[in-house]
Structures are given as C-alpha cells and as structure tokens.
Write a structure and sequence with these properties.
The structure is a homodimer of 181-residue chains.
Chain A (H helix, E strand, L loop, with lengths): L5 E10 L4 E8 L5 E8 L3 E7 L4 E9 L4 E5 L2 E3 L6 H13 L1 E12 L10 E11 L10 E7 H9 L6 H15 L4
Parallel strand pairs in A: 4-9
Antiparallel strand pairs in A: 1-2, 2-3, 4-7, 5-6, 5-10, 8-9
Chain lengths: 181, 181
C-alpha cells in the first residue's frame, strides 16, 4: 500500500526565533488534496549523564507553554549549522558544568510527528569531569541529581512526563542493567 | 529559586485546524521581558495494545512533516470536549478494529515542552475483542503486529523514533515483566 503524500503548495504562516509554521496543501494517496499544518524546528539534543555515584543529572525549569516547572534531562536546540554531537556537549557543559570522555548515542526522537518536524538526538554518558556552567541570558534552571533507580521508578509511575526525559531514563536504565555503559 | 515566568501579552499568529500558534511576551524571574513562542494543540491519546499472542499493535503511517513512513502506536487527537479515555478507545477501535475490557493508565507525555503545550495520554491494554475499523477520510495506514520482545529490542536500537511509541513500548515491556498487565 502506497501511503505517500506529496507537497502541492507551501505557505509560511509564522517565522519565529525558534519555530516556523507552514500550511501546506498535500496530495493524498487517493489523489485528493488536504491541508497539512507543519511546525519546523532546528532540532535538539539531550543527554542522560550519570555521576560516579550512579545518579542522573536533571534540570528543573519553568516551561512556559504549560506554565509549570518540569524536571528534564539537560537539553537544548541546535544553533544554525551546529553539529548535533558538539551541540549536546555544549548544552551539557553550559547547563550542568560537566563533561564526559565517551558518549553512547541512543538515536533520534520525533516528539510529535503528526504536525511537527523536530528531530531530537539523545546520548548517555558517565561524567568524567567538571567545568563552569554558562547559562543563556534568559535561561533559569536548577541542576538536580537523582539516583538512576529512583528516576526509573519515577518514569514508571508517570512522574516524568517530558518525552525525551522519560525515554532517556528508561533507555539509560536498560543500558546500565545490560552492562553497556 | 523562583523560576516562574508570567504572561505579559499574547498574540495569535496562526489558527489552524489542528494547532494554534502564539507569540507571547513573558516576564522572566529577573524581571526582564522575553518573547515566548507557543504551539497550542487540543491534546492526544495513544494506546499500547497487546494481542493474546503477546504482540503489540502498530500502525504504519506517512508523516508529512518528515516526508517518511513511520511505525507508531495507534493514536489520535482529542475532539472538542471529548474525554481522553473515550478518545483513546475510539482511536483504537477506528485505527485497529480492537478493544479491551480493562486499560492501565501510564500517564501524560509532554512531547516538546520548550515551545509546545500538547499533552498526550498513554494507556496499555490486553485486547479482548475485535470490531470494525473506521478510518477518517484523509487517514491512510496499515496495522502491524510485532512481538513485544522484538519491539523492545527495536526501541533499544533506536528504531522507534516516535516519542510516544518508544515510551509505550518501554513501559509496556516493564509492565509485562513485572506481571502488572
């Protein structure tokens, strides 16, 4: 079965600092035309960083779209032309003041593929050293450490709603249990 | 540390059939004003449905923002005023032609909290019966069954990038292993 849709037209409705929004017309598999709303995003990176004591680093941040504080893995978006791996290390350094010798790549995350084209890349690491934090001017956050087992139980109880964070915790738990990190 | 941000102003930039996009001005914890781009979404539902043979139901769909086919758990968005639990059962029925007697609620997923306000709710179930599929007019998809253990290994290899799908597979695997479903 051919599921492909083809772009017929494209109109930008909003160009912001972070996202762009398009309203396209697309040709469906049956030949009909339908509107497709698309959010464009430069892409993001995130890291599950383990301390020597087996704790995961989290950041607590206010998330404006939900008007609430959330517990998340350190993350950020790509600067124009930036390599994702370098961006991830930069975000880890800036938000948590830590770095690692080696990183395990855990793949891509598509947050909401029905209307959003963001690709988020996920790594896990064991922290090997400390450096200075360096937050953006409009960035306010607190760094927390949570033992991996406790974070895993929080994920199973539905207490880590942020998608990348829940995935990062579940995947890192599996890696550690399998002796792969 | 007070991390709260306050809405100062709000301007809708796009109102589509699925999403609305706002550009707000917000007061940061240090009193400064910054722009905040917000995607509003009616909310979604998704279900990890296990067959008698221990397979998970997936749907293969073309996802226009990525211009590629993806393997996902059955899912959909809330109709205006619709109860999330009823919406999930409706989507399961429409997309896979199955239903269950009991469902285990696995919590909320926030796909991309930096700019998006979507809340997606996740359930798991063991399928208890079959009914007729009933796809929307502009919906084209194929239903697939994948053994849970194989789906889990796909998730660990990074082959299930859709966030809700990866979370649903990892969580259902944990539920089954713990004898909780």
């Amino acid at each position: 079965m051919d599921l492909r849709e083809e772009q017929v037209s494209c109109e930008y409705k909003f160009k912001g600092r972070i996202i762009k929004v398009r309203l396209d017309q697309a040709r469906l598999p049956d030949g009909k035309i339908a509107g497709r709303e698309v959010v464009e995003h430069p892409g993001g990176v995130t890291v599950a960083a383990l301390t020597d004591e087996g704790e995961l680093l989290f950041v607590r941040q206010f998330r404006y779209p939900y008007m609430q504080e959330m517990l998340e893995l350190p993350a950020g978006k790509l600067e124009p032309g930036e390599d994702p791996f370098e961006a991830m290390k930069r975000e880890q350094r800036e938000e948590t003041g830590t770095f690692a010798e080696t990183y395990t790549y855990l793949g891509e995350i598509y947050p909401s593929p029905g209307y959003c084209g963001e690709i988020l890349r996920l790594w896990a690491c064991r922290i090997s050293g400390a450096c200075e934090m360096d937050l953006d001017e409009d960035e306010f956050l607190e760094v927390l450490k949570i033992p991996l087992e406790e974070a895993y139980q929080m994920a199973l109880r539905g207490e880590l709603p942020d998608a990348k964070t829940q995935i990062g915790v579940l995947r890192t738990y599996a890696l550690v249990k399998d002796g792969k990190i």
